[in-house]
Amino acid sequence: MKYSITFFLLFFLLALPEVGHVDAQTKHAPGSRGSGAKKKQTVKKKKPSKKTGKKGKKVPEHVWNKTPMLMKYVKPIKNPLPGMDRECIARLRAARIRFDILKGVKGVKTPLKLYETKLGGVVYRRAWNNKTAPWILDCKTVENLIIAGKKLRAYGIASMYWTSAWRYSYVHGTTKLSNHAYGRAIDITAIDGGFGYAALIGGWERCGGCGQGCPSKKGRALRAAVCALKGSGIFKTVYTPDYDALHRDHFHIDSPNEAHKLKVKVKPEHYGKVEDKKEDTPPDGDKKIDKKNDDPDRNHWNDQEPELEYEPPRSRPHHY
Ligand SMILES: [Zn+2]
Fold it and tell me: Who has greater pLDDT, 119 or 25?
């Protein structure tokens, strides 16, 4: 054992400078050694840093979707602020919809962060190609989706797969803000139900009306979805693949009609009065629970900067 350890140590001591020598030769010009090699090494290190500096200045970042940068201003609040649609909030509360009222959502009059995925009996599922978009909508959009639920279910539609709700961006190719920026639009890429899973891509068929003349069940269901949303005037606009190439893979559901309102019994408590004193002193029995809920640091929001500054392309999986 002793011999083997001493042999190893000797070998290590002899080999060490050689390794260093080889390393210096491969990194730098042949023949350079010692202090000369070190100088060259420092010169080489400076060059890439200059390059990256130039790159950073050169690339002008045109950000078409500013939503991720705006998320840091978004905070939940307990009571609606002046200018918000308190009537709409009250109706949703009466309908037992779980949500947070938000402040700081740029462009949106009455922004809500939903804790419901089921609206009017239809499940709103996050589409597979969208992991980062916030589930934030204007109150009126939420209300009209609930109203549309009955009609969608009547056509056998169980779920809607959404890719975009509130999104602070322009209409493609213009400098006009999209209705997504006002929380008044939602993009749907697919639906499911008794007919199976029907995506707009591959499922949309050239058949008119509410799908009566469509060759397949899926094509019929997709046409029926448009009728449920738009035909009754619940939403004024629904863009389909028939509208233009930009909508080949999704329905753009837009402009909820103010005339449609949920038929619910609204009670005074649904309006969310400003009663800070009562909220600060909860009844004895619930003190522990309410303390937790009152803690401003304990909320559902992620303070970390989002990984992506943009939305990934819609029609392609992440790994492409
Ligand atoms: Zn859209």
Answer: 119
